[in-house]
Structure formats: structure tokens, C-alpha cells
Amino acid sequence: MQDMDKQDAQTAQQDASVDQAATAEAAPAEPTVADKLAAAEARAAEMQDAFLRARAEGENIRRRAQEDIAKAHKFAIEGFAESLLAVKDSLEMALKIENASLDSLKEGVDMTLKQLSSAFEKNKLQEVSPQSGEKLDPMKHQAVSAVPAEQEANTVVAVLQKGYMISDRLLRPALVTVAQGK
CA-based, 20 to 30 A from 51: which of 8, 9, 68, 122? Predict the structure, then answer.
């Protein structure tokens, strides 16, 4: 019987050890301050790395944008200059012709003017040439004098020099004379 009691005591002791081990496995141990610090430092290192990468990417984007803007400024006139090359070639060829008649010169100048007008149109360079009697538009016209006329006051009498616009932006106002007020 004593052997049985010893055996029962050993079994009870083993059961208690197994219960303790199971309880220890079931309830995870509370993280220590050192574990929390290590996790926080790792997270901070990840965040710093992400921040530095984002900052570098932002700098790269800014640098590329500045390069693109510089190229756009540098080569913005390229298309217009290309359009004008044909005009220059025509003028040079006209000067090389010896003993040209007045009619051939006039025809050559007319063709060159058409080339120039085509280059202007292609590059959205539009004439500002108001008609007589049109109301003065200070955003497109510059009155150089007021003259007595049989028209309403502040209307265009004559165009002294055409103006030009690029798209919707005034490059040079048209110089006009306007009718005086009565």
C-alpha cells in the first residue's frame, strides 16, 4: 500500500508539473521593458529609413522637374525657329538671283510672306489689326493720337502698325489713331 501511496504521490506531482507547464504555455509571459524598447527602436529605425527614402524621392522629383522646366525654356522656341528657316532660305535665294525682274521679285516676296504667315499660324501668332470704326480695346490696341473724324469717339480711325498675340497673350499692341470726342 505504501508503494501505491508513493506512486499516487508521484503521479500527483507529475500532474501538477504538467498543469504548471500548460498554464505557463497558455498565458504568454508579459513582455519585459527591454523587449518593448527593442521593438520601439526597431520601429523607429524602420520609420527613419522610410522617411529618408521618401525625402530622397521628393528631391529626385524636384530635380527632374527643374531639369524639365529648364529644357522647356531653352527649347520652347525650337518649333517657331524651324518654321522660320524656310522663310530665311527663300529670302537668301531671292538675293542670289541676278537681273531679277520687278514681277519676279514681287512674286518671290509674296511667296515668302505666305511662308511667314503660315509659320505664324502654325505657332499661334495672330495679327491684331482692328477695322476702321471698331471700338478701341486698350488690352489689344494702343492709341497714339486722337483725330477729328465722323465716327463715334474712341473708335479706330486708322491702323499705323499691326499688333500681335501669341495664343491669348498680347505680344505687341496695334498702334492706332482714334476718333476724337465731339
Answer: 68
